[in-house]
Specification:
23% of the residues lie in helices and 42% in strands. It is built from 3 helices and 8 strands, in the order E-E-H-H-E-E-H-E-E-E-E. Mean pLDDT is 91; it is low at 1-11. It is of the alpha+beta class and 152 residues long. The longest helix has 17 residues, at 67-83. A hairpin with a 2-residue loop joins strand 3 and strand 4.
Amino acid sequence: MPQERLPSGRVGQFPSPSRRRMLTTRFRGVPFIRHLGMRLDALEDGTATISMAAKPALHQYQGLVHGGAISSLADTAATFAVLTRIPEKTDVVTIEFKMNFLAPLRKGRTTALARTLRLGRRIAVAEVRIIQKGESEPAAVGIFTMLVFPVS
């Protein structure tokens, strides 16, 4: 787990153990995430790895994984990557994204590798690579813009 200097000069871990627990609980509590069968594989400093089985219920008429399911996986991974970095009492919502589909996804486990590219006071940007199990090249890539906002 990466070490960083806190504003006080102390060294800390990101996300902190309590933040990691909160994010894991939040992930498990989202019905849509459970419906798609997503699994939270890793949360680190500004990154998230989330996977999903390419089950037939997620296929479109040609037998390929539906772009909406792939986009949902990517959006979820981007969101959780940014959530590892934002301050307490803030949250995010996606305000724009672009996906490029590079290769078809048919079956097996699909993994989203997300990393925070930029975190500002109000806007965050993350990139996501979608990798099919057994492949080295991405099947899709995406860029996500998120609004960072205060919560009480």
